[in-house]
Amino acid sequence: MLHEIIIAGFGGQGVMSMGQLLAYAAMIEDKNVSWLPSYGPEQRGGTANVSVIISDEPVGSPVITHPTTAIVLNKPSFEKFEPLVIPGGILIVNSSLIDIQSKRTDITIIEVKASELANEMGEPKVANSIILGAFLEISKAVRPESVLESLKKVLPERRYHLIPLNKEALKRGAQLVH
User: Fold this and answer.
1) In this structure, are strands 108-112 and 90-94 parallel, antiparallel, or unpaired?
2) Is 90:107 a contact under the CB 8 Å cutoff?
């Protein structure tokens, strides 16, 4: 089992949090993992991406050049990472914010209106959990329960009241894959 995942979007979209959740969840499940963030000094509003590798084998390098999965939350990230996904890989797109479609036929493409669904739920910040739920459902990289447990490590305590909403967002994202 090997998942080489790049998550990318604007700062403030929860890109780093998604990567941390996957990394902590993989550790909870005793998998080998690496987490490598990349962002400019502008963080909020600037582009950000994180590379996460989850494997049954030791991870030799945290650098990913051709991901098995790219999760893209904005148009610049789509344009940068869509061509890099390996044939047979997965591209998950926040279609609420990205108005172009992939022309590739050699990858699985999942379009999720994550921002719209999060707004319907009354909390725009759970868009990343909706996308993450879709990824977990299609990839089975880690269990949703492990991600929920990881929320307590990623969220500050003052945000713990959002855990039930994130749980619902993960479920909604998973339902979209069916």
Assistant:
1) parallel
2) yes
> Which residue numbers in the chain have pLDDT < 70?
40-46
| pTM score, whole prediction | 0.93
pLDDT at 156: 87
Q: For residue 128, give the nearest of 94, 153, 85, 79 by alpha carbon.
A: 94
What span, in angstroms and rounded, lies between the C-alpha atoms of 97 and 115? 7
Token reading at 121: 């739920």
DSSP classification of residue 82? G
At 14-52, the pLDDT tens digits run: 899 999 999 999 999 999 999 999 876 545 556 799 999
Express each pLDDT in 87-100 by its tens digit.
999 999 999 999 99
Burial of 16 (0-12, 13-18, 19+ CB in 10 A): buried
Token couple for 26: 């993989």
Alpha carbon distance 80, 64 (integer Å): 13
Strands 90-94 and 69-72, by their bridges, are parallel
Which regions of 63-163 does DSSP assign to beta strands (E)? 69-72, 90-94, 108-112
Q: Ramachandran region of residue 151, left (φ > 0), alpha (ψ -120 to 50) or beta?
A: alpha
